[in-house]
Amino acid sequence: MLPFARITIVGLGLIGSSLARGIRTFTPTVRITGYDASAEVRETARRIDLCDDVADSAGAAVTDADLVILCVPVGMMGPVAAELADDLPAEAIVSDVGSCKASILAALRGALPQQRIVPAHPVAGTENSGPEAGFATLFRDRWCILTPEADCDPLAVEQVGDFWRRLGAQVEVMEAAHHDLVLAVTSHLPHLIAYTIVGTASDLEDVTRSEVIKYSAGGFRDFTRIAASDPTMWRDVFLANKDAVLEMLQRFSEDLSSLQRAIRWGDGDALFDLFSRTRAVRRSIIEQGQDDAKPDFGRSH
Amino acid sequence: MLPFARITIVGLGLIGSSLARGIRTFTPTVRITGYDASAEVRETARRIDLCDDVADSAGAAVTDADLVILCVPVGMMGPVAAELADDLPAEAIVSDVGSCKASILAALRGALPQQRIVPAHPVAGTENSGPEAGFATLFRDRWCILTPEADCDPLAVEQVGDFWRRLGAQVEVMEAAHHDLVLAVTSHLPHLIAYTIVGTASDLEDVTRSEVIKYSAGGFRDFTRIAASDPTMWRDVFLANKDAVLEMLQRFSEDLSSLQRAIRWGDGDALFDLFSRTRAVRRSIIEQGQDDAKPDFGRSH
């Protein structure tokens, strides 16, 4: 028994379009309605037959939905929710896929009359954007974190969890504030650092941009992948999860200063100790199925 | 006409064993002698038939070599060169594969009577170590940088370049000091940052190690790959290329502070500007064949 018969996806970028494809693939009887604020994206969605129906307004997209999933940048969650609030069936469950949860939860509570709001964050993605970048198996073996408020209808939480499991995800429930702290370190800080180093390398005088690109296989290229992620999405994440990101950034900077000092004073033992410790983390990630075991991410050689 | 008939590889880890396999595959008539300071590694090399001969001392390994390639950690280059100096044929060319060149050039000049020293750095690798981690195509389409001194025999430089091209590499010649500056940003700084963030994430109180691993697909896991690289190799790199690494680290820290300030003051435009700029770098790296065009490094989904 499927938890939902009619699902509306608002925002047809990488995640929204992956959801549409995943639903088509794994629960093909579900009727999918899509909407995107961009007329060009709506046109593409129609051309590639992404959804059963592409509506021309957020309101028209949700009129008969069981589940509405907002897949827009974090800063747009509140405005989009306000835009469709009047057309939303009273019994519909509203969810989202945003990367920080406390601010989204507050925005959705402020904009919607709904009691049944079940925020979600599938920890999955690629560096590509847009309706053609999505694929059905993006969420397979990845974690999807639900952050409902304590008074949320448990049945709604169960149904949204069931939905994600059918797309191949593993589901965890936690408080929004804790989510934001965890993701600040496992996702937001890595993106911030990657963006920074790619910027630093682009702005040198003694080393040309062309040299940076030619010799990027020494490690730098790994950082450029996540530094190619969607700029709007990531701007919003840092603004919305400011406190947790600044806290993690402070800790990182302290640790970096300590290594800087070890290098300056030639303290090889301190370097060796850290470099030996970090290998174990990689091993655990592979053992728990959160990355490829193949060397070099399985890049072709 | 092959540039060398008898090649000796000293150090049979990832790079040394990839060289042996590459020579076997692409120039199968060349006779390969190998040596490693570890008896266990020599035993493995014999078992997997990595070389035509595995010698039991560095001196015995080089007695009839045309080309000797040192594939040991940067800090061991000088001691290993001293160990084999007496047995080295006067006409043999000596090369290496170390990640910083000025300190190695000085160490080799100090330890060897040879005039024909052609230091090399193939900008290639994986996070794995040891004689069984190597493969013949590791150097294909990667750059190999040669850093001979100005008075080095041009024929020797040409022969070493020819050798690397036969393994599939592209060859560039530059001064050792410039190499060390370029690689400080494209390789050494990325490794330092990756090691740091993996350490930071391992040491939190409010977020458990288990949570870091579970939700690592949000970006963190990308950093764990290069933070799983060989600890001895990387300790030596940072000690040997101290000045250039500290200079790049200083620039990175300034840029990070500037982003930190933008987040604290909610300056979304500054964030968006940087995040838009960095996308172009990724595109250039892919266009120039230095990374896979497939999303997510081509990881399986």
TrEMBL record, chains A, B:
<keyword id="KW-0520">NAD</keyword>
<keyword id="KW-0827">Tyrosine biosynthesis</keyword>
<dbReference type="Pfam" id="PF20463">
    <property type="entry name" value="PDH_C"/>
</dbReference>
<dbReference type="InterPro" id="IPR008927">
    <property type="entry name" value="6-PGluconate_DH-like_C_sf"/>
</dbReference>
<dbReference type="InterPro" id="IPR046825">
    <property type="entry name" value="PDH_C"/>
</dbReference>
<dbReference type="InterPro" id="IPR046826">
    <property type="entry name" value="PDH_N"/>
</dbReference>
<feature type="domain" description="Prephenate/arogenate dehydrogenase">
    <location>
        <begin position="5"/>
        <end position="293"/>
    </location>
</feature>
<dbReference type="InterPro" id="IPR003099">
    <property type="entry name" value="Prephen_DH"/>
</dbReference>
<comment type="similarity">
    <text>Belongs to the prephenate/arogenate dehydrogenase family.</text>
</comment>
<dbReference type="InterPro" id="IPR036291">
    <property type="entry name" value="NAD(P)-bd_dom_sf"/>
</dbReference>
<dbReference type="GO" id="GO:0004665">
    <property type="term" value="F:prephenate dehydrogenase (NADP+) activity"/>
</dbReference>
<dbReference type="Pfam" id="PF02153">
    <property type="entry name" value="PDH_N"/>
</dbReference>
<dbReference type="GO" id="GO:0006571">
    <property type="term" value="P:tyrosine biosynthetic process"/>
</dbReference>
<comment type="pathway">
    <text>Amino-acid biosynthesis; L-tyrosine biosynthesis; (4-hydroxyphenyl)pyruvate from prephenate (NAD(+) route): step 1/1.</text>
</comment>
<dbReference type="GO" id="GO:0008977">
    <property type="term" value="F:prephenate dehydrogenase (NAD+) activity"/>
</dbReference>
<keyword id="KW-0028">Amino-acid biosynthesis</keyword>
<keyword id="KW-0057">Aromatic amino acid biosynthesis</keyword>
<protein>
    <recommendedName>
        <fullName>prephenate dehydrogenase</fullName>
        <ecNumber>1.3.1.12</ecNumber>
    </recommendedName>
</protein>
<dbReference type="InterPro" id="IPR050812">
    <property type="entry name" value="Preph/Arog_dehydrog"/>
</dbReference>
<keyword id="KW-0560">Oxidoreductase</keyword>
<dbReference type="GO" id="GO:0070403">
    <property type="term" value="F:NAD+ binding"/>
</dbReference>
